[in-house]
Amino acid sequence: MRPGYVKLVENVALPRMALVRQNFDAQDVDDVARTVHDAIAGAGFVRDRIRPGMSVALTVGSRGLASLPELVRAIVAELKALGAEPFIVPSMGSHGGATAEGQTKVLAQLGVTEASAGCPIRSSMETVEVGVLDNGMSVRIDRLAYEADGIVLFNRIKPHSAFRWENESGLAKMLSIGLGKQSGADNCHAWGFNYVGRFVVEMARVKLATCKVLFGIGTVENAYDRLSKVVVLPPEGMIEKERVYLAEAMRNMPRLPLGPLDQPLASGPLDVLLVDYVGKEFSGSGMDPNITGRPSTTAIKGGPSVSRICVLDVTDKSQGNANGVARADVITERLFDRFDRESVYTNSLTSGVLIAASLPMAMPDEKTAIQAAVKTCESHTPDAITMIRIPNTLHLEYLYASEALLPQIAGRPGVEILSEPVPMQFDAAGKLKDPWPEGH
Q1: Is residue 164 part of a domain?
Q2: Verdict on whether the full-model pTM lies above 0.90
Q3: Which domain range does residue 184 map to?
């Protein structure tokens, strides 16, 4: 039997929606292996730092980087060609349930295995202390990486979803938090996200001075979640050099078609944002606040002003880790039932952001969830609801926009309205039927 409160929304009219395509300026990498080879060969210092037979720990994190398995395989192949004996160290702080087995499993879910990479994966949560910050905070690093003959840092460089600093997600963070495992992540987050950026840099400087970091390989992605650039940075000046690519990554970010075009983040009001899926492969926060304007911390600002956010589901790859769905206002019972407290609570307790482990109102199905968001969005013009539907916060090439929003976005450069606005379609179970273009 359906709950009684469903009667309060079942007659709410939903806006007609049109399919829209955004065209972003983007540079693509056509050949991953060749690009990795050229980047490493072009960094003259690399060959001087690799000795035949030396063991090299390669960091691989928990994020769904574009072309991740291909990148890892190419990097391993280049290290082997130089005579090294590489192995992968899962470098993801507390992710994977903060267990060695869980972190190896996370890599497998991302397509990185010993077979795909062509080298061993050695996973452990054991760390060693390599220094102490001025405030007495311990600086720790994965023992297996520390005991190797050398470390190669590998990570995507991009804006973080919970703090702003000169270095955000990238090589410095991989060194400080990723390789710090549970203890390193705990320490870095101990004072809250207003200090994370500072500690990322301070801990990275200590580790660069005390550990055998050979070089770093960073990737930059474009607005289509595709590989745009591979860069190789020496440990000397790595922190400062990475900042150039962070600025580039910020400019490359996709965005909703709202607000001034010369700003990296969307801005302005929106009645309802409908998100099909949250997931770790889209954002460390599951749902990127750079897109939604709904951060879980005070260390990040900007983005649109959305009255109601409705989320329909969590991806299978996330295995119930719907961390960040708390920033929604309405979800479905399916998402509620798939919410895995073990993984979400581990993330939240480590980061100190307890609000990220909360759950919004859960409605029986997708239709009633959307109706609840529309009913409560406080619009002064209920017949002219502004609503955008996106598949997730990473892939924004295609979206659905409500009829009332079309005049506002029709004249924007790079925006194509692909269909006439039509009523939203649902099946007998209340599941949204309106499809995305094939392959998206």
Answers
A1: yes
A2: no
A3: 32-252
